[in-house]
Amino acid sequence: MLFVIDIGNSNTVIGLYDGVHLYKDWRIRTERNITEDEYNVIISSLFAGSGVNPKQIDKTIISCVVPPLVSILNSFCLKYLGHVPYWVDAGSAAHMPILYDNPAEVGADRIVNSVAAFHKYKTSLIVVDFGTATTFDSISENGEYLGGAISPGIMISSEALFIKASKLPRVEIVDPPDKVIGKDTASSIKAGIIYGYAGLVDGIVRRMKIEMGSDPKIIATGGLAKLMADICKTIEIVDTTLTLEGLRIIYEDMDHIKKSC
Protein backbone atom coordinates (compact mmCIF):
# COMPACT_ATOMS: atom_id res chain seq x y z
CA MET A 1 0.00 0.00 0.00
CA LEU A 2 1.04 3.59 -0.61
CA PHE A 3 1.18 5.88 2.44
CA VAL A 4 0.62 9.55 1.53
CA ILE A 5 1.24 12.43 3.96
CA ASP A 6 0.67 16.16 3.48
CA ILE A 7 2.13 18.18 6.35
CA GLY A 8 0.67 21.68 6.60
CA ASN A 9 1.35 24.38 9.16
CA SER A 10 -1.85 23.65 11.10
CA ASN A 11 -3.03 20.20 10.00
CA THR A 12 -1.56 17.04 8.53
CA VAL A 13 -3.64 15.01 6.09
CA ILE A 14 -2.83 11.32 5.82
CA GLY A 15 -4.08 8.68 3.42
CA LEU A 16 -3.59 5.05 2.42
CA TYR A 17 -3.95 3.95 -1.19
CA ASP A 18 -4.51 0.44 -2.44
CA GLY A 19 -3.68 1.00 -6.09
CA VAL A 20 -5.78 4.00 -7.20
CA HIS A 21 -8.33 3.45 -4.44
CA LEU A 22 -8.15 5.73 -1.39
CA TYR A 23 -8.58 3.10 1.32
CA LYS A 24 -8.61 5.46 4.32
CA ASP A 25 -7.74 9.04 5.19
CA TRP A 26 -7.32 11.09 8.37
CA ARG A 27 -6.71 14.71 9.39
CA ILE A 28 -4.59 15.37 12.49
CA ARG A 29 -3.03 18.44 14.06
CA THR A 30 0.53 19.26 13.01
CA GLU A 31 2.88 19.12 16.00
CA ARG A 32 6.30 20.68 15.39
CA ASN A 33 7.95 19.32 18.55
CA ILE A 34 6.95 15.70 18.12
CA THR A 35 9.49 12.85 18.01
CA GLU A 36 9.50 9.93 15.59
CA ASP A 37 8.42 7.62 18.44
CA GLU A 38 5.51 9.89 19.39
CA TYR A 39 4.52 10.11 15.74
CA ASN A 40 4.47 6.33 15.58
CA VAL A 41 2.10 6.18 18.56
CA ILE A 42 -0.37 8.45 16.74
CA ILE A 43 -0.11 6.62 13.41
CA SER A 44 -0.32 3.19 15.05
CA SER A 45 -3.49 4.25 16.87
CA LEU A 46 -5.07 5.45 13.63
CA PHE A 47 -4.09 2.26 11.83
CA ALA A 48 -5.36 0.02 14.64
CA GLY A 49 -8.71 1.80 14.66
CA SER A 50 -9.10 1.09 10.95
CA GLY A 51 -7.70 -2.45 10.94
CA VAL A 52 -4.57 -1.49 8.98
CA ASN A 53 -1.40 -3.56 9.32
CA PRO A 54 1.68 -1.29 8.98
CA LYS A 55 3.51 -4.17 7.28
CA GLN A 56 1.19 -3.66 4.29
CA ILE A 57 2.81 -0.26 3.65
CA ASP A 58 5.77 -0.57 1.31
CA LYS A 59 6.09 3.00 -0.01
CA THR A 60 5.55 6.51 1.31
CA ILE A 61 5.39 9.97 -0.26
CA ILE A 62 5.34 13.21 1.73
CA SER A 63 4.73 16.88 0.95
CA CYS A 64 5.76 19.22 3.75
CA VAL A 65 5.83 22.97 4.38
CA VAL A 66 7.23 22.61 7.93
CA PRO A 67 11.02 22.07 7.55
CA PRO A 68 11.70 20.89 11.15
CA LEU A 69 9.45 17.86 10.55
CA VAL A 70 11.44 16.54 7.58
CA SER A 71 14.09 14.78 9.68
CA ILE A 72 11.45 13.51 12.12
CA LEU A 73 9.32 11.94 9.38
CA ASN A 74 12.43 10.51 7.72
CA SER A 75 13.36 8.82 10.98
CA PHE A 76 9.79 7.59 11.53
CA CYS A 77 9.62 5.98 8.09
CA LEU A 78 13.01 4.31 8.41
CA LYS A 79 12.46 3.08 11.96
CA TYR A 80 8.85 1.93 11.78
CA LEU A 81 8.05 1.39 8.09
CA GLY A 82 11.45 0.17 6.93
CA HIS A 83 11.94 2.48 3.96
CA VAL A 84 12.92 6.03 3.00
CA PRO A 85 9.99 8.27 1.98
CA TYR A 86 9.88 10.22 -1.27
CA TRP A 87 9.72 14.00 -0.66
CA VAL A 88 7.85 16.28 -3.04
CA ASP A 89 9.68 19.31 -4.44
CA ALA A 90 9.65 21.44 -7.60
CA GLY A 91 11.25 18.60 -9.55
CA SER A 92 8.47 16.18 -8.66
CA ALA A 93 5.98 17.55 -11.19
CA ALA A 94 7.48 15.58 -14.05
CA HIS A 95 4.75 16.48 -16.56
CA MET A 96 3.97 20.01 -15.35
CA PRO A 97 6.32 22.86 -16.31
CA ILE A 98 6.58 25.30 -13.40
CA LEU A 99 6.77 28.84 -14.77
CA TYR A 100 7.68 30.52 -11.47
CA ASP A 101 10.79 32.71 -11.62
CA ASN A 102 12.32 30.34 -9.07
CA PRO A 103 10.48 26.98 -9.17
CA ALA A 104 12.11 25.93 -5.89
CA GLU A 105 10.03 28.58 -4.09
CA VAL A 106 6.72 26.88 -4.91
CA GLY A 107 5.38 25.03 -1.86
CA ALA A 108 5.07 21.26 -2.10
CA ASP A 109 1.35 21.45 -1.27
CA ARG A 110 0.74 23.83 -4.18
CA ILE A 111 2.58 21.53 -6.59
CA VAL A 112 0.60 18.51 -5.41
CA ASN A 113 -2.76 20.29 -5.72
CA SER A 114 -1.95 21.58 -9.20
CA VAL A 115 -0.81 18.19 -10.50
CA ALA A 116 -3.95 16.49 -9.17
CA ALA A 117 -6.32 19.16 -10.48
CA PHE A 118 -4.95 19.10 -14.03
CA HIS A 119 -4.76 15.31 -14.07
CA LYS A 120 -8.42 15.13 -13.08
CA TYR A 121 -9.99 18.00 -15.04
CA LYS A 122 -7.68 18.47 -18.07
CA THR A 123 -8.42 22.17 -18.52
CA SER A 124 -7.22 25.57 -17.33
CA LEU A 125 -7.73 25.87 -13.59
CA ILE A 126 -7.51 27.98 -10.50
CA VAL A 127 -7.07 25.93 -7.32
CA VAL A 128 -7.98 27.65 -4.05
CA ASP A 129 -6.64 25.89 -0.96
CA PHE A 130 -8.14 27.02 2.35
CA GLY A 131 -5.36 26.16 4.77
CA THR A 132 -3.26 28.11 7.26
CA ALA A 133 -2.64 30.39 4.30
CA THR A 134 -5.16 30.61 1.49
CA THR A 135 -3.35 29.89 -1.76
CA PHE A 136 -4.52 30.51 -5.32
CA ASP A 137 -2.75 28.48 -8.00
CA SER A 138 -3.16 29.01 -11.73
CA ILE A 139 -2.73 26.20 -14.27
CA SER A 140 -2.92 26.75 -18.02
CA GLU A 141 -4.94 24.64 -20.44
CA ASN A 142 -1.62 23.07 -21.50
CA GLY A 143 -0.89 21.92 -17.96
CA GLU A 144 1.66 24.60 -17.06
CA TYR A 145 1.90 25.95 -13.53
CA LEU A 146 1.63 29.70 -14.10
CA GLY A 147 1.94 31.00 -10.54
CA GLY A 148 -0.58 32.31 -8.07
CA ALA A 149 -1.33 34.33 -4.97
CA ILE A 150 -1.02 33.78 -1.22
CA SER A 151 -3.11 35.48 1.45
CA PRO A 152 -3.43 34.94 5.23
CA GLY A 153 -5.80 32.09 6.01
CA ILE A 154 -9.21 32.57 7.58
CA MET A 155 -8.14 31.27 10.99
CA ILE A 156 -4.97 33.40 11.02
CA SER A 157 -7.02 36.50 10.24
CA SER A 158 -9.54 35.60 12.93
CA GLU A 159 -6.85 34.98 15.52
CA ALA A 160 -5.19 38.32 14.75
CA LEU A 161 -8.52 40.08 15.29
CA PHE A 162 -9.13 38.40 18.64
CA ILE A 163 -5.58 39.11 19.86
CA LYS A 164 -5.39 42.74 18.79
CA ALA A 165 -8.97 43.79 19.64
CA SER A 166 -9.17 42.93 23.33
CA LYS A 167 -12.89 43.72 23.75
CA LEU A 168 -13.99 41.40 20.95
CA PRO A 169 -14.94 37.84 21.97
CA ARG A 170 -13.41 34.77 20.35
CA VAL A 171 -15.88 33.31 17.84
CA GLU A 172 -15.86 29.83 16.32
CA ILE A 173 -15.85 29.91 12.52
CA VAL A 174 -17.93 26.83 11.73
CA ASP A 175 -20.86 28.19 9.71
CA PRO A 176 -21.89 31.51 8.16
CA PRO A 177 -24.42 33.85 9.78
CA ASP A 178 -27.79 34.22 8.08
CA LYS A 179 -27.19 37.88 7.28
CA VAL A 180 -24.26 40.18 6.59
CA ILE A 181 -25.72 42.83 8.89
CA GLY A 182 -25.15 41.28 12.31
CA LYS A 183 -27.46 42.04 15.25
CA ASP A 184 -24.90 41.15 17.94
CA THR A 185 -21.12 41.18 18.27
CA ALA A 186 -20.59 37.47 17.57
CA SER A 187 -22.66 37.44 14.37
CA SER A 188 -21.06 40.71 13.26
CA ILE A 189 -17.59 39.18 13.63
CA LYS A 190 -18.62 36.02 11.77
CA ALA A 191 -20.18 38.09 8.97
CA GLY A 192 -17.09 40.25 8.62
CA ILE A 193 -14.72 37.29 8.53
CA ILE A 194 -16.68 34.87 6.36
CA TYR A 195 -18.36 37.26 3.90
CA GLY A 196 -15.27 39.45 3.85
CA TYR A 197 -13.15 36.44 2.96
CA ALA A 198 -15.62 35.40 0.28
CA GLY A 199 -15.16 38.83 -1.28
CA LEU A 200 -11.38 38.40 -1.15
CA VAL A 201 -11.58 34.98 -2.83
CA ASP A 202 -14.00 36.08 -5.54
CA GLY A 203 -12.00 39.24 -6.20
CA ILE A 204 -8.67 37.44 -6.61
CA VAL A 205 -10.21 34.70 -8.76
CA ARG A 206 -11.82 37.22 -11.11
CA ARG A 207 -8.56 39.13 -11.52
CA MET A 208 -6.64 35.92 -12.16
CA LYS A 209 -9.15 34.85 -14.82
CA ILE A 210 -8.61 38.15 -16.65
CA GLU A 211 -4.82 37.71 -16.57
CA MET A 212 -5.10 34.10 -17.74
CA GLY A 213 -7.27 35.11 -20.70
CA SER A 214 -9.28 31.90 -20.46
CA ASP A 215 -12.27 30.49 -18.60
CA PRO A 216 -10.60 28.31 -15.92
CA LYS A 217 -12.47 25.88 -13.73
CA ILE A 218 -12.34 26.96 -10.08
CA ILE A 219 -11.56 24.16 -7.62
CA ALA A 220 -11.55 24.54 -3.82
CA THR A 221 -9.81 22.26 -1.35
CA GLY A 222 -8.62 22.42 2.25
CA GLY A 223 -10.29 22.32 5.65
CA LEU A 224 -12.71 25.22 5.14
CA ALA A 225 -13.42 24.61 1.44
CA LYS A 226 -16.98 23.35 1.94
CA LEU A 227 -17.91 26.28 4.16
CA MET A 228 -16.51 28.90 1.79
CA ALA A 229 -17.87 27.25 -1.36
CA ASP A 230 -21.40 27.95 -0.12
CA ILE A 231 -20.58 31.66 0.15
CA CYS A 232 -18.14 32.35 -2.70
CA LYS A 233 -19.71 32.96 -6.10
CA THR A 234 -16.71 31.82 -8.16
CA ILE A 235 -16.02 28.36 -6.69
CA GLU A 236 -17.40 25.59 -8.90
CA ILE A 237 -16.14 22.36 -7.33
CA VAL A 238 -15.04 21.27 -3.84
CA ASP A 239 -12.48 18.48 -3.96
CA THR A 240 -11.40 17.57 -0.42
CA THR A 241 -9.07 14.72 -1.45
CA LEU A 242 -7.20 16.73 -4.10
CA THR A 243 -3.93 16.83 -2.16
CA LEU A 244 -3.92 13.10 -1.43
CA GLU A 245 -4.68 12.33 -5.07
CA GLY A 246 -1.81 14.58 -6.16
CA LEU A 247 0.60 12.70 -3.93
CA ARG A 248 -0.53 9.38 -5.41
CA ILE A 249 -0.19 10.65 -8.98
CA ILE A 250 3.27 12.11 -8.39
CA TYR A 251 4.50 8.91 -6.78
CA GLU A 252 3.19 6.77 -9.64
CA ASP A 253 4.75 9.11 -12.22
CA MET A 254 8.13 9.07 -10.49
CA ASP A 255 7.98 5.30 -10.03
CA HIS A 256 7.19 4.84 -13.72
CA ILE A 257 10.10 7.09 -14.72
CA LYS A 258 12.53 5.14 -12.49
CA LYS A 259 11.40 1.80 -13.98
CA SER A 260 11.82 3.20 -17.51
CA CYS A 261 15.42 4.28 -16.91
What's the gist of this structure?
The chain has about 260 residues and is α/β, with parallel strands linked by helices. The protein is built from seven helices and ten strands.
CATH class of the largest domain: Alpha Beta
What's the assembly state of these chains? single chain
CA-CA gap between termini: 23 Å
Q: And the CATH topology of the largest domain?
A: Nucleotidyltransferase, domain 5
- Please indicate the percent range of residues in DSSP E strands (runs of 2 or more): 15-25%
Mean pLDDT: 92
Question: What order do the SSEs take from the amino end to the carboxyl end, as H and E?
Answer: EEEHEHEHEEEHHEHEH
Number of helices: 7
Structural domains: how many: 2
Question: Class by helix and strand content?
Answer: alpha/beta
The CATH homologous superfamily of the largest domain is named: ATPase, nucleotide binding domain
Question: How would you describe this structure to a colleague?
Answer:
- By secondary structure, this protein is an alpha/beta fold.
- It is built from seven helices and ten strands.
- It folds into two domains: 2-87, Nucleotidyltransferase, domain 5 (2-Layer Sandwich), CATH 3.30.420; 122-246, ATPase, nucleotide binding domain (Nucleotidyltransferase, domain 5).
- Helix content is 40%, strand content 23%.
- The strands form two sheets. It has a five-stranded mixed beta sheet with strand order 3-2-1-4-5, sandwiched between helices.
- Helix 2 links the parallel strand 4 (59-64) and strand 5 (86-87).
- The longest helix has 28 residues, at 185-212.
- It is globular and about 60 Å long.
- 37% of the residues are buried.
